[in-house]
Amino acid sequence: QGRMWAYTVGFTVLPHVGGFLGWFMNRKEIPVWYEKLKKPSWCPSRKIFPVAWTVLYTGMGYASYLIWNDLGGCSGKAVVPLGLYGAQLALNWAWPPFFFGARNLKLALIDILCLDGLAIGTMCSWYRINKVAALLLVPYLGWLAMATCLTIRIWKDNPEQKPGKGE
């Protein structure tokens, strides 16, 4: 019983690790660079992002535990559903360094478009295993849809400087 508690907490906390590291590594770029970007009027306030990601990472982390548990751990049956989850989580964690760290809007856009596909694939693969786990990803997919649209708008409205110009 105590061991299952540790697994539940571990799976639930895992997504927060990369999210926190992404924020920590790029936190100085947000007020300096991000605030100067042209953003659409519907862009959420910076204060919303940590709250949203805390809720989203907790839901997806717990959902991954449900899948892992239902499939009996890291069994052969778990390779695809948890592999998709791991791949989308890696792309999720890669977005802030691309966007804020490298200031590469095009690469961030490519990343989030691939992330969208993997997140949808994850939800579809999970639905057959555990409907609750799949439904826990719905808010995440909704947020990703907004984040994708926001990334597209920022990329289109803030053309990247050509080398040697404007610097």
Automatic annotation (TrEMBL):
GO terms for cellular component: mitochondrial outer membrane. The chain crosses the membrane at residues 6-26, 47-66, 78-95, 107-129, 135-155. Pfam families: TspO_MBR. It comes from Phaetusa simplex. CDD domains: TSPO_MBR. It is found in: Membrane. Keywords: Membrane, Transmembrane, Transmembrane helix. Belongs to the TspO/BZRP family. PANTHER family: PERIPHERAL-TYPE BENZODIAZEPINE RECEPTOR (PTHR10057), TRANSLOCATOR PROTEIN 2 (PTHR10057:SF4). Signal peptide: none annotated. This is TSPO protein. It is a multi-pass membrane protein. InterPro entries: TspO/MBR-related_sf, TspO_MBR. The keyword Transmembrane helix applies. It comes from the Eukaryota.
